[in-house]
Amino acid sequence: MTIASLCLPCTLFAQSDQELSLGEQPIFKVSRTVEPIVVDGLMNEKSWKSTEARSFDYFYRVDQPDDQQQTTLRMLGDEQTLYLFYDMKDKFLTAREMQRDGQPY
Fold first, then answer.
1. Beta strand pairing status for 28-29 and 2-3?
2. What torsion, rounded to 10 degrees, do the Cα atoms 26, 43, 57, 13 define?
3. Domain-by-domain residue ranges, the chain?
């Protein structure tokens, strides 16, 4: 299954000076899966290992290597569902709220 999404290319090039015209958007190959996927935040299924992974390491175009955030996106699909798996390594994550279902802001 191949998906040429309008949202994903906009996200990929949101910080870029490059302008894309119709047909120049990057294509993301979505792997088809037949095994059941459990939505649990873990990549335990074999299908996740064989799907394409896209990196967003330089998304914000930062100059300092310490500011770079490592993020990887994978997509799987079956007859009914498109599954997205983001693996983000945020070095600057802070928790201001520790109570379950507390105020996020």
1. antiparallel
2. 30
3. 2-89
